[in-house]
Amino acid sequence: MSIYLEPQNLRLEVAPDGTLRAQIEGERCAIRVEVLRAFPISNENQNLILRDGAGKELGILRNFEGIETPQRQLLQDALENRYFLPKIHKINAIYERFGSAVWDIETDRGATSITTKALHEAIYEITPSRFMLRDTEENRYEIPDVNALDEASRARFLGKV
Question: Could you tell me which of 7, 52, 106, 148 has the fewest CB atoms within 10 Å of its CB?
């Protein structure tokens, strides 16, 4: 059963090993805390789930309201690390080989080359024009709007979908 956490009863800090630690006043202290979004696409700043290092849920924060700035920054940093999601702006090439695909792409984080499993396993349609890709290392990449890609990139992508 999930419980909602009250911001005034929650204290967050970075542990010596660089992980997040949480103290829930009057209840418990947890190490290696993970912060997850219950609705990462539709409501990214509401219903933030906190779990301890064993995967046990500590509770849910409704949103960032009432969270002091330093604590809020720790939460935002944890979410940013967890939901690292480069946005693809250009597809220079897609090569298929041995049941996988190598993508030469340009993202908002720079140019890179990624390898995905078979295309039908790597591409997820979020909306008719928005897509997610997952590479073989479980990193995710987003094409926010396939129609906003240049003509050559769009043709390369749509030729594979």
Answer: 148
Q: Which two tokens stand for residue 76?
A: 């935002």
pLDDT tens digit sequence for 64-73: 999 999 999 9
Angle at alpha carbon of residue 47, lines to 138 and 137, rounded to 5°: 5
What is the per-residue burial (b if ≥16 Cβ within 10 Å, else e) of 125-159?
Answer: eeeeeebbbbbeeeeebbbbebeebeeebeebbee
52 SS3 class: coil
Q: How far apart are the first and last CA of the chain?
A: 40
103: left (phi over 0), alpha (psi -120 to 50) or beta: beta
CB distance 83 to 37 below 8 Å: yes
Q: Tell me the pTM.
A: 0.64
Residue 124, helix vs strand vs coil? strand
